[in-house]
Amino acid sequence: MQDLDYDPVACSSGAEAVGIFESQPFDLVITDVIMPEMTGPELIKHLKQSHDDFAVLFVTGYVGEGETGDLVGYELLRKPFTVGALANAVAVALSRRPSEPRRSGGAAAAG
């Protein structure tokens, strides 16, 4: 993400992502679909309860994911991916963002 001129904030779990998200605004949340303790869709559902003005990019390495209702309407990037595919997926996800950007870049990644 830094190579794409974003200012990413990494975290190691959904719970950590929730804490970080509460402390500062983000334009984009990038999360794996399958994670221990809290799935990516569960994380997004939780974050959307208090904030609805960020874009979402789900990442998965599993074939067949993407058809579930929890992922519909969000950009999905399949692993493995190139930097070019990541750049494109981020651009598409940000274009789906429901409101005007609060800042020039940023991401919270969990997983």
UniProtKB/TrEMBL annotation:
Response regulatory domain span: 1-94
Record Pfam families: Response_reg
SUPFAM superfamilies reported for this sequence: CheY-like (SSF52172)
Modified residues (4-aspartylphosphate): D32
PROSITE patterns in the cross-refs: RESPONSE_REGULATORY
Keywords: Phosphoprotein
Domain of life: Bacteria
PANTHER family in the cross-refs: STRESS RESPONSE REGULATOR PROTEIN 1, TWO-COMPONENT RESPONSE REGULATOR
Protein name: Response regulator
